[in-house]
Amino acid sequence: MIINIGKYIEIAIDWITENFTSFFDGIDHIVGNFINGFQYGLNWIPFYITIAIIALLAFYKAGKAIGIFTILGLFLIYAMGFWAATMETLALVLSSAIIALILGLPLGIWSAENKKVEKIMHPILDLMQTMPAFVYLIPAVLFFGLGNVPGAFATVIFAMPPVVRLTTLGLKQVPKDIVEAGYSFGATRSQLLFKIQLPLALPTIMTGINQTIMMSLSMVVIAAMISAGGLGEVVLKGITQMKIGLGFEGGIAVVILAIILDRITQGFVKRKK
Questions:
Q1: pLDDT for 73
Q2: Which candidate, 39, 83, 225, 253, has a CA 20 to 30 Å from the CA of 9?
Q3: Domain with 64 in it: what CATH number?
Q4: Which is nearest to 10 in space by CA: 194, 202, 138, 107?
Q5: In angstroms, rounded to a whole number, what is the distance separating the alpha carbons of residues 110 and 105?
Q6: 47 lies in which domain range?
Q7: Which residues, in sequence order, are CB contacts of 74 under 8 Å at separation 6+?
Q8: From CA 73, how far away is CA 68, in angstroms rounded?
Q9: What is the mean pLDDT of residues 264-270?
Q10: In the chain, how many domains are there?
Q11: DSSP symbol at 193
């Protein structure tokens, strides 16, 4: 006996697509404007000012060596002619990471507070992390068509689990005696969460944010397959057109951006610790 699970999934996706068209159109409009706003802002600022701002942030958070690397790396990207594509990628990564954090942080807090929710979330997060990333492109295209929004949709699903898991872990690692002391001094539930638990759990949460940003960036090339643009499109052209040099240059730009974002976010984690 053959169980055709895919058939039932297709039926469910088709039903959702037919009955929630207006809902997905609204999300497409909101998220699309959000990403386009990021892109417009990053492209509107002159490249040398953007490089100076990111370099100063790198100097402050990650040290002199990373600051120098940031200046040289971003100037190399500009010299290779990939500045606009890099800003598109950065806009998509930041937008997707922000959406993932907006959704993931409350889920992590809820999971830490409720054991039943944690038991339900655990297998769902396992599924989200182990499912091949290419699979997420199918419902993304069906719901939103081609462009930045389906790319962001697939990226959010792929990148959200780390921040949920590490938010839950960070809150659970807060010493119970400190929580009990907060209650004994008359702290309300919200005061305990925002003034005691979250500040103490912040280093672990920041690690989750770092991982979410890195996983968002890892979806760049995959999202380019559904016209998300950016550096992923450069790499994809190199692959499909057998232009080894172009693909290698696009890959270098992705690596430079990844190192800069990783070191800066790690700098935030170290500062919080």
A1: 92
A2: 225
A3: 1.10.3720.10
A4: 138
A5: 9
A6: 5-272
A7: 47, 50, 51, 54, 55, 256, 260
A8: 8
A9: 76
A10: 1
A11: I
Dihedral sign (CA 262, 155, 202, 168): negative
Distance of alpha carbon 217 from alpha carbon 82, whole angstroms: 16
Of 79, 80, 102, 96, the C-alpha closest to 39 is 96
pLDDT at residue 52 in the model: 92
Q: In this predicted structure, what is the pLDDT of residue 270?
A: 63
Cβ–Cβ under 8 Å, residues 83 and 256? no
pTM of the shown model? 0.84
Structure tokens at 133: 């990333």
Averaged over 24-42, what is the pLDDT?
Answer: 84
C-alpha dihedral, 136 to 139 to 144 to 150, nearest 10°: 0
Checking if the pLDDT of 260 tops 60, the result is yes
Q: Is 168 in contact with 111 (CB distance < 8 Å)? A: yes
Classify 43 as helix, strand or coil: helix
Provide φ and ψ at 269, rounded to 5°.
-65, -45
